[in-house]
């Protein structure tokens, strides 16, 4: 729908096409809001900007809650395995506020457009998280050492390629993705120097089954 509206704006107002030749990327982002403000009735403006605000808030909350839960559960909690639920909830809140503060400061001091910042955020996921996630789910030989090497090589190669050869034929994020896959394979097949901290799905299911049987044998134990 937004693409259709933007295309309709260019058909109705051909002069807007000049904005795409402008070096100011922010001018392009104003095409759709300016069309809504100038050509639509008040009720349509309320619906449009209400839906836009809802989408922004939904995306922002998901983008903050997902890394907060992942970082706290998978990175911080293993260092304190006997943490109580109250302490874990407090830690979640502290990490959430910290991530929100860092993201706000970055956005206020960045000269990039919203599209560029979102693109870079997903590049981090592509080069640092995609390969370890897929390998951990589908490759039995994947281990912690391979995952760490994949993250370091993937993000490091992507950042280096962005700075050194931003206009290369192959995009920097794809170079980082290949480096991430190479790091995963290299770290998993070489001798283990970093202990494996993960557990297989089969082990987790067996553990859950054992606890379930124990609860059935001793229903009043708790």
Summarize the structure in words.
Helix 6 packs antiparallel against helix 8, helix 6 packs parallel to helix 9 and helix 7 (130-138) runs parallel beside helix 9 (172-189). The protein has helices spanning 2-12, 25-29, 31-39, 42-76, 85-109, 114-128, 130-138, 144-164, 172-189, 201-217. It has a domain at 132-222. It starts with a helix and ends in a 5-residue tail after the last helix. The model has no long low-confidence stretch (mean pLDDT 82). The protein is mainly α and 222 residues long. The radius of gyration is 24 Å and the shape is extended. It contains ten helices and no strands.
Question: Any chance you could write out the topology, listing elements then pairs?
Answer:
Elements (H helix, E strand, L loop, with lengths): L1 H11 L12 H5 L1 H9 L2 H35 L8 H25 L4 H15 L1 H9 L5 H21 L7 H18 L11 H17 L5
Features:
mainly alpha, 10 helices
How large is the radius of gyration? Answer: 24 Å
- Tally of helical segments: 10
Tell me the total number of β-strands: 0
Q: Which stretches are low in confidence, meaning pLDDT under 50 for 5 or more residues running? A: none
Order of helices and strands: HHHHHHHHHH
Oligomeric composition of the shown chains: single chain
Q: Summarize the biggest pleated sheet.
A: none
Mean pLDDT: 82
The level of helicity is over 70%
Quote the beta fraction: under 5%
Spatial shape? extended
By helix and strand content, what is the structural category? Answer: mainly alpha
Q: Kindly, what is the distance between the CA atoms of the first and last residues, rounded to a whole number of angstroms?
A: 55 Å
